[in-house]
């Protein structure tokens, strides 16, 4: 096992010097993955340094977010793309070294807003691509908008579930199709990718993280997470018109609804 880990790491380190990016759409579990990565003593994930304008997140997560905002990356002045690339190359890449993978989280919308797709696609970084059932992503976003809670630490009280909601079929369809296009685009980014499915990660975090740590070239360790899954409820129970959606949705959307129904 150790020989395999060392071999994987040599290949990983030779291509990107141990730097990785956690990539995904908002509400796909990227914070959970970052916190699990930080369970490893030799791995550091700096969360959203390219979106560091949330003081609460800065205080909660990582000093890198404070530095990014106050001393380097300053959103709103028209040079965001240049700043972001320079910050990655000058401040983040040098921190990844032999046996010590270092990375950060970047969401789809941040890549688009900062114009970073072509830059990232040309790099030999390792990409941990987080995915989730798009119906759950859409409803999770609605839930967060209703409650105002976008993240919970394990020591915080479990959020009160928002009242069951009626979901617009047209909005759900549009989101699912947009998400599918984004998946196809971002699943081609970079030469080295490791896919992580949210539901599988929640059900078997240790098994998934053993694979992720192997991808990063470090010895697997027992994982612990600062983050927690916010939705303890059955997502079907939170959608008042679930049966109507299932009946009237187009085939491509119905397939995602059926996966929820069949759990």
Which properties best describe this structure?
single chain, 263 residues, globular, disordered N terminus, 13 helices, 5-stranded parallel sheet, Rossmann fold, alpha/beta
In words, what does this structure look like?
The protein has 263 residues and is of the alpha/beta class. It has a single domain (2-133, 150-161, 192-232), classed as 3-Layer(aba) Sandwich (Rossmann fold). It has 13 helices and five strands. The protein has helices at residues 2-16, 30-37, 55-60, 63-72, 80-92, 108-114, 117-122, 134-147, 169-186, 198-203, 205-216, 242-248, 251-261; strands spanning 19-24, 44-45, 102-107, 126-131, 192-197. It has a five-stranded parallel beta sheet with strand order 2-3-1-4-5. Helix 12 packs antiparallel against helix 13 (251-261). The radius of gyration is 19 Å and the shape is globular. It starts with a helix and ends with a helix. Mean pLDDT is 80; it is low at 1-15 and 54-61.
Order of helices and strands: HEHEHHHEHHEHHEHHHH
Average residue-wise pLDDT:
80
At the fold tier of CATH, the topology name is: Rossmann fold
Largest sheet features:
5 strands, parallel
The CATH architecture category equals 3-Layer(aba) Sandwich
Which parts are unreliable, with pLDDT below 50 for 5 consecutive residues or more? 1-15, 54-61
β-strand percent reads 5-15%
Number of domains: 1
- Tally of DSSP helical segments: 13
The CATH first-level class comes to Alpha Beta
Rounded to the nearest angstrom, the distance between the terminal CA atoms is 34 Å
- Order the strands across the largest sheet as they lie in space: 2-3-1-4-5
Total strand segments: 5
Form type: globular
